[in-house]
Design brief:
The complex is a heterodimer of chains A (about 120) and B (about 110).
Chain A lengths: L3 E4 L2 E4 L5 E7 L5 E8 L3 E8 L6 E2 L6 E5 L5 E5 L8 E8 L10 E2 L3 E5 L1
Parallel strand pairs in A: 2-11
Antiparallel strand pairs in A: 1-3, 3-8, 4-5, 4-9, 5-6, 7-8, 9-10, 9-11
Chain B lengths: L3 E4 L2 E5 L4 E7 L7 E6 L6 E6 L5 E4 L2 E6 L4 E6 L8 E7 L8 E2 L3 E6 L1
Parallel strand pairs in B: 2-11
Antiparallel strand pairs in B: 1-3, 3-8, 4-5, 4-9, 6-7, 7-8, 9-10, 9-11
The chains are: A mainly beta (about 120), B mainly beta (about 110).
Amino acid sequence: NAGVTQTPKFQVLKTGQSMTLQCAQDMNHNSMYWYRQDPGMGLRLIYYSASEGTTDKGEVPNGYNVSRLNKREFSLRLESAAPSQTSVYFCASSEAGVGGDETQYFGPGTRLLVL
Amino acid sequence: QQQVKQSPQSLIVQKGGISIINCAYENTAFDYFPWYQQFPGKGPALLIAIRPDVSEKKEGRFTISFNKSAKQFSLHIMDSQPGDSATYFCAAAISGNTPLVFGKGTRLSVIA
């Protein structure tokens, strides 16, 4: 069981470039999440997917798009990267749902630097 | 609007001492309150969680105290060890309904 995996681990982009962050989980979880973590700001939710086929905006969705490719995979796309998107990005998954386990399992993170 | 307020931002505790981190929430519909622990370079991991039907939950050296009327909950780490040095996040959610809302985190350093 790999849990939640993220690729790449580290990326440097120039302003205006695009990229996709990949996330996969092997726990058969219904819900998946993308967070960004910045110093002093905690974990802020970008987008989440409560179940396969659905996505919803979180606290800070501007500049990002997501795709829930299937139950296992949830990708985050930056169409035109900006220096303000320099951050550490975490993907997480949970069983969730009414009566389900609320525990969120986090991946190791992707460190993104936008120049 | 910050729905979960966490304090202090950083904390230094002597080895063997008690570490206390506090959180306050605003939404009275929240009914799930977890604490996550994050070591440098790693993703957060669930440490302990509580629901409002109990006022306290203990797992080893870690205890959550919950005060529903004050809309506050706290994490107590007894006999703090250098290995407990990490960032701790409190969070809250409405079970089965909404994603977790996280506090801004507390960086704990336990010194010998």
